[in-house]
Amino acid sequence: MRLPVICPSCDAVLQVSTLTCDHCQTTINGSYPMPVFLRLTPDEQEFVMKFLLASGSIKEMAAQEGISYPTLRNRLDELIGKIKQLQQ
After folding, report:
1. CB 37 within 8 A of CB 52
2. DSSP category for residue 6
3. Is the pLDDT of residue 73 over 90?
4. Chain segment 2-44, per-residue pLDDT in tens
5. What's residue 50's pLDDT?
6. pTM score > 0.70 for this model?
7. Could you state, in order of their start, the residue ranges of all structural domains in the chain?
8. Is 71:62 a contact under the CB 8 Å cutoff?
9. Among 4, 10, 44, 68, which is most exposed with the fewest C-beta within 10 angstroms?
């Protein structure tokens, strides 16, 4: 099951408020922002993982995905823009 990051009631970004250790039952409470990577869509997360596993090589990833270099480059640029926006 994917970790929910958007509130189902109002569409706001959820905050992490409790962390629990399953081993010793320690609980930490606070308000922690959701990491940027988790705020990406599942498809965007998969794209980032494939890009990293291709050692950041657009050429290699384009060959693996069977799409052109410019198409992959455009998708990467769009994702970079989204990540920059989420970091603000």
Report:
1. no
2. B
3. yes
4. 788 889 999 998 999 999 999 999 999 999 988 999 999 999 9
5. 96
6. yes
7. 37-87
8. yes
9. 10
